[in-house]
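Thread amino acids onto this structure.
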């Protein structure tokens, strides 16, 4: 039952929790550094909460693409729910002031890639299942 829930809801919810101020500052914790590592080259690797959120979304995108490779009747439901998640991202990006950031836009594009990859993989695998004699 829970396998049909789009996992990209996780970064969507995390971003909105930060936007509501439940953790982080007034604008969310997205610019706060969580990692600061001096490199052998003399440079410094720094990671922010926003970077971490994008990494989480990319790992989730991989899982969603792997879920799209399953051939079942429920895959239509998966695609439909993923489309709703993308629409939620898009509407929030266009209408909410706090979501008008490059971070949220990147998450929106990741949701779009999820839809396009899911439909492409499903169509491709469905065409292999059809046999014409």
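Threaded sequence (133 positions):
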């Amino acid at each position: 039952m829970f396998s049909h829930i789009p996992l990209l809801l996780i970064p969507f919810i995390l971003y909105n929790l930060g936007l509501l101020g439940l953790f982080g500052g007034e604008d969310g914790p997205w610019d706060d550094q969580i990692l600061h590592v001096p490199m052998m080259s003399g440079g410094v690797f720094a990671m922010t909460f926003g970077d971490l959120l994008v990494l989480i979304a990319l790992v989730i995108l991989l899982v969603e693409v792997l879920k799209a490779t399953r051939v079942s009747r429920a895959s239509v439901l998966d695609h439909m729910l993923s489309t709703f998640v993308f629409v939620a991202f898009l509407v929030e990006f266009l209408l909410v002031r706090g979501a008008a950031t490059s971070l949220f836009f990147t998450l929106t594009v990741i949701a779009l890639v999820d839809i396009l990859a899911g439909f492409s993989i499903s169509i491709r695998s469905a065409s292999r299942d059809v046999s014409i004699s």
